[in-house]
Amino acid sequence: MQTGARLQAAIEILSEIRERGRPASVALADWGRSHRFAGSGDRAWIGNLVYDSLRRKGSLAFLMNCDEPRPVALAALHCSWGLTADDIAVLCSGEEHAPEPLTAAEIAGLESGDLSAAPAHVQGDYPEWLAASFAAAFGARAIEEGKALANRAPVDLRVNTLKATRDKVLKAFDRHNAVETPWSPIGVRLPPREGGARNPNVEADPAHGKGWFEVQDEGSQIAALIADAEPRMQVADLCAGSGGKTLALAAHMQNTGQIYAYDADATRFRPIFERLKRAGARNVQTLQPGETAALDPLAGHMDLVLVDAPCTGTGVWRRKPDAKWRLSPAQLDERVATQSTLLDVAATLVKPGGKLAYVTCSILPEENQHQIEAFLARAPGFAAIDVARRAKDVLGRTVETAYAGEGHGLLLTPASHETDGFFIALLTRTAD
Ligand SMILES: C[S@@+](CC[C@H](N)C(=O)[O-])C[C@H]1O[C@@H](n2cnc3c(N)ncnc32)[C@H](O)[C@@H]1O
Asked: Does the UniProt entry include the keyword Transmembrane (predicted)?
């Protein structure tokens, strides 16, 4: 496809997402199915522009004085890909499936659009209704943190220490410029590609088939590392999903002890079986998903309970940028209520002296520090552990929280740690 035709396709997909409220991944997959002639290079170019447009939709619309898909995509080419107004005018020839020529208003937006008078939520590209939460989380750094959540993310791999070493995995992805992640001793990072370039499909690599690594953001790796799982422990992973953290815990525990993996949703849980097999994890017992009675025998016996809670996913907006514009106050309230219930369930499983690790991939205080404060207020038999100290012990260096206020736990963010947004709190059961 000519570049102009790729641009027109991206604009059409953005219109589909906007008009029909469809997730970007679904709209892109549908487009691919109905345009079989498009090659993988075309799809990567179009997908990257769609995602970059969504990542910075608020600020790009402000610059262009219009939030329609076409001006937003043009502004993404300018602001995120570095094309000049003249470069973009060449693509908009109006011929051979290319977009119509630029209007005077579009040229003005591209050449002299200015964000300096825009409110913080526009400069930081987050929804206006979350402005107070961003200010509470980050204070004067709200715009900077929002901007970093609107960048592309790297592909992070967690080395499976049951089967490989970091050096082995680094070597396997040498051709993709693999480097060590900054914090996790078992992390490998493939930096994000620029412009329309395609990301490597790491899961198609033989090293993945051999179980040498799993795709897992460094923030998630850190959460699993500091959750305090030790060999021979009895551990419950209450929201195991497809097993990302279960696998990490199994490796930290060197395939000893027992991890009881549970999730309410059978479909989300299903991939765990294949992943456990590939990773060579033998200390995991899978519980019947959705059967809460399966948790009964664990009550009061667990050394560690991990609650990797369902959340708004505000910390992973780099990877799912359309989610940030779809999120609603009602969904946030619903998540907060579920998290609170899950903390209460988790508390019943912890043995005296045992631990409860609470993790979200959210940066919102409502789901993080406030959630922990409320739990500690209603569960006097639990006390907070100093996570910063634990992180220093595990990672060998000080990790400052990105949270601007007072509160328990550790908040990791793209701006402060080059990870996805993750919150980790560690509690201990002090009394019966
Ligand atoms: C953040 S995801 C878990 C990700 C997973 N631990 C990983 O590392 O890949 C949250 C999970 O919580 C599950 N969930 C939601 N409500 C639940 C409940 N009441 N009990 C158990 N799991 C629940 C969801 O199905 C989802 O898989």
From this structure: no
Q: Are 383 and 408 in contact (CB under 8 A)?
A: no
Distance 263 CA to ligand 1 centre (A): 6
Task: Print the domain residue range for 192.
Answer: 155-209
Q: Whose CA is nearest to atom 4 of ligand 1?
A: 241
CB of 420 sitting under 6 A from ligand 1: no
Q: What is the pLDDT of residues 180-225, one digit of tens each?
A: 999 999 999 999 999 999 889 999 999 999 999 999 999 999 999 9
CA proximity to 370, closest of 330, 324, 406, 412: 406
Please give the distance, rounded to the nearest whole angstrom, from the Cα atom of residue 318 to the centre of ligand 1: 20
**pLDDT tens sequence across 60-112:** 999 999 999 999 999 999 999 999 999 999 999 999 899 999 999 999 999 99
Strand-by-strand arrangement of the 155-159 sheet: 179-180, 187-190, 155-159, 213-215
Active-site residue set: 361
Q: Given ligand 1 and candidates 237, 239, 331, which is best to mutate, with the most ligand atoms within 8 Å of its CB?
A: 239
> Using a 6 Å cutoff on CB, does residue 313 contact ligand 1?
no
Q: Is residue 366 part of a domain?
A: yes
Task: Select from 252, 263, 339 the residue to mutate for testing ligand 1; criterion: most ligand atoms less than 8 Å from CB.
Answer: 263
Same domain, 198 and 223: no
Query: Can you list the alpha helix ranges (DSSP code H) found in 270-386?
Result: 272-279, 321-326, 329-349, 369-378
* CATH number, domain containing residue 176: 3.30.70
Smallest CA separation from ligand 1 atom 3, residue: 241
Tell me the CA–centroid distance for residue 342 and ligand 1, in Å. 10
327 shares its domain with 422: yes
- Residue spans of alpha helices (H) in 350-419: 369-378, 387-395, 414-417
Domain annotation covers residue 268: yes
| pLDDT on residue 2 | 94
Has residue 140 been placed in a domain? Answer: no
Residue 262 main-chain phi, psi, to 5 deg: -140, 150
Overall number of domains in the chain: 3
Q: What is the ipTM of this complex?
A: 0.99
Atom of ligand 1 nearest to the CA of 361: 1
Q: How far is CA 39 from CA 8, 25, 33, 341, 350, in A?
A: 16, 17, 12, 47, 53
- Burial of residue 296, with CB atoms counted within 10 A of its CB: 0-12 exposed, 13-18 middle, 19 or more buried: exposed
Beta carbons of 399 and 388 less than 8 angstroms apart: yes
Neighbours of 325 (CB within 10 A): 16
Amino acid letter, 40: S
